[in-house]
Design goal:
alpha+beta, six-stranded antiparallel sheet, globular
Length: about 170
């Protein structure tokens, strides 16, 4: 869910020079498809974006450089395209531990020099650490019993809403 929630970016990743500062959040876009969600993050600094010649015309024709393309493929796969290459992630529930998930990731490097700079320019480790911390705080809030339930924000939470509807459809079907 955290992966799909664009709403957390300006809050969880707000440290000076953090993800909220290096990508153009105002133009961040989420596309919800039947079996996947595609999230577009544009680079504030064009030098930190994907070379348009590397992308198919449908992606490159948007006039700016893409900081990252993040795909979530239902039910548990993410494909994250960066200028340095592809990060492939698989999320697997841990049997008997409903609050635990096994997270496997693989990096396929296209540009070694950019890959060496992934923590400085694309904030790979920092973003991961911030997300893990946020997930722990959410878990504590849920466990407290004080976390309110509410509606999804149509503008900010279209992808988490899509995910919850998919889960509900698959677990409620006869």
């Amino acid at each position: 869910w955290n992966y799909l929630d664009r709403f957390h970016i300006p809050y969880v990743h707000r440290v000076p020079g953090g993800l909220a500062d290096v990508m153009d959040y105002a133009d961040y876009r989420t596309e919800v498809h039947p079996h996947a969600v595609l999230q577009w993050a544009w680079a504030k600094n064009p030098a930190h974006g994907l070379d348009p010649a590397f992308l198919p015309a449908s992606f490159a024709a948007r006039g700016r450089r893409v900081f990252a393309l993040w795909w979530f493929v239902y039910p548990n796969l993410t494909l994250n395209l960066y200028p340095w290459g592809l990060s492939l992630n698989v999320y697997t529930p841990v049997p008997g531990r409903p609050t635990r998930t096994l997270f496997l990731w693989y990096h396929y490097v296209l540009d070694e020099a950019k890959y060496r700079d992934k923590d400085a320019l694309w904030l790979d480790r920092q973003v991961d650490a911030e997300d893990v911390d946020a997930l722990g705080q959410v878990r504590r809030g849920i466990d407290s019993g004080f976390a309110p339930r509410g509606r999804f924000s149509p503008a900010e939470e279209a992808a988490p809403h899509w995910f919850h509807r998919r889960i509900w459809r698959e677990t409620s079907a006869p």
